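Quick one, tokens below:
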């Protein structure tokens, strides 16, 4: 029987100590030379924020609310460990262990002991468990620990996906009210055969573009209509599509995760947030082929701290929003003390023409860029085809702060691109303490602004003369 500390705080601390340290558009623009010598290698990564300073604020639990993690001071009568091998799982990387996982989950979830218990579903080290598309359903009678110390994989590729099972999702957690996904193990989506489908719009090894078209591919982890979730330590890699999604979720605390897939892997967003609030993503590393973090409609109160994005991918994105004339609202987003390297974008807001709603209360603070093509970008003309007609409506972008963003950029694009709607301008943009220089040579590309209004609080490099005064002052 696995011996686990009865003190949840010590359990989490031990996992964190074991977890290794964080691993480390095209527009026509005027060019000129910048005389100061900037050494791209002189820019350090942002300082690491100690875990003790970056923990999510503690929630005072209702002693009768089993959705809350047990208090460190609470005297637990017992910890019930549900090792999946005791439910028939083999873990040889070949045998389908889905039924064993489902039985173990149902047993842990239905734990009917008194309140002073913890249910632990254990995926033990040294084994590889094959699971097909599965939904783990709550709410459970006690707080759940899903401890992954071994490896979890799906069937290998679309041809081996069981007939009749959903190809859009793999591991789904539905209506969970209190769960921690922890451990030192790996959740491996085995995405290569999905990425190689002819309908995937990405470039193959021969640098030729694959045929485009719709096709279904599963997200590795989906949390749907759930609350009080915590993720720490686990590595998630090679998802066929998005690695981790949160839809309709509340109170999500992510710390010390590693998400990785090749830069060429299509549509493999690291973490996607939709219709969710009170989400923290701290002290994690994401290297993938699409958005490092993407924030969709209906999301608010999102805090991203000490996140490393890249190499590869499309940076941290709000959007895309307003597709097919839809209404989208996003507010109170903070990204701070983070590092983006060798990425197509840095911090991005992207909206479709014709949409409505708003993006407001966004702060990007102390972001280090290393050879990023579009370090700062607002694109209200986002389009995935060559034939997108102009429309008058747009998602309103308001109250966005860019502060202390420094590093190097790929000068094929401007370091700052504010491409705002003709009819719905971007307003209340604040730009402060920017120092962005080319990663190669001394030729500087001037910022690009279109219908963008705001203020430049401090001296910045390059000069941002294209940002107009706020229209309310005219």
């Amino acid at each position: 029987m696995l011996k686990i500390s009865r003190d949840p705080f010590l359990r989490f601390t031990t996992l964190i100590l074991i977890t290794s340290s964080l691993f480390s558009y095209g527009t026509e623009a005027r060019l000129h030379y910048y005389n100061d010598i900037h050494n791209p290698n002189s820019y350090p990564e942002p300082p690491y924020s100690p875990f003790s300073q970056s923990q999510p604020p503690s929630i005072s639990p209702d002693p009768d609310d089993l959705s809350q993690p047990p208090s460190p001071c609470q005297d637990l009568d017992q910890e019930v460990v549900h090792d999946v091998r005791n439910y028939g799982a083999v873990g040889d990387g070949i045998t389908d262990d889905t039924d064993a996982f489902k039985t173990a989950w149902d047993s842990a979830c239905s734990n009917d002991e008194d309140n002073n218990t913890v249910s632990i579903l254990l995926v033990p080290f040294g084994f590889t468990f094959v699971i097909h598309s599965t939904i783990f359903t709550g709410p459970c009678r006690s707080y759940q620990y899903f401890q992954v110390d071994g490896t979890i994989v799906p069937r290998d590729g679309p041809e081996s996906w069981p007939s009749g099972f959903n190809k859009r999702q793999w591991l789904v957690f539905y209506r969970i009210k209190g769960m921690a996904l922890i451990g030192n193990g790996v959740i491996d989506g085995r995405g290569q055969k999905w990425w190689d489908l002819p309908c995937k719009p990405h470039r193959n090894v021969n640098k030729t573009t694959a045929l485009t078209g719709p096709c279904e591919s599963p997200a590795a982890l989906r949390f749907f209509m759930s609350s009080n979730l915590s993720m720490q330590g686990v590595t998630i890699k090679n998802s066929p599509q998005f690695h981790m999604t949160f839809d309709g979720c509340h109170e999500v605390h992510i710390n010390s995760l590693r998400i990785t897939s090749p830069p060429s892997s299509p549509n493999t967003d690291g973490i996607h947030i939709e219709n969710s609030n009170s989400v923290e993503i701290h002290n994690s590393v994401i290297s993938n082929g699409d958005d490092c973090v993407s924030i969709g409609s209906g999301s608010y109160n999102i805090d991203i701290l000490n996140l490393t994005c890249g190499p590869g991918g499309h940076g941290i994105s709000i959007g895309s929003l307003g597709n097919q004339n839809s209404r989208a609202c996003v507010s109170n987003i903070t990204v701070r003390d983070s590092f983006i390297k060798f990425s197509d974008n840095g911090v991005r807001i992207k909206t479709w023409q014709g949409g409505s709603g708003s993006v407001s209360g966004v702060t990007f603070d102390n972001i280090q860029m290393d050879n990023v093509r579009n370090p700062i970008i607002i694109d209200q003309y986002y389009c995935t085809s060559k034939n997108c007609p102009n429309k008058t409506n747009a998602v309103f972008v308001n109250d966005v702060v860019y502060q202390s963003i420094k590093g190097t950029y790929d000068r094929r694009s401007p370091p700052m691109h504010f491409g705002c709607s003709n009819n719905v301008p971007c307003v209340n943009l604040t730009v402060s303490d920017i120092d962005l220089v080319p990663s190669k040579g001394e030729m500087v590309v001037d910022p690009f602004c279109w219908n963008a209004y705001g203020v430049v609080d401090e001296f910045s490099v390059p000069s941002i003369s294209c940002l107009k005064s706020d229209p309310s002052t005219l």
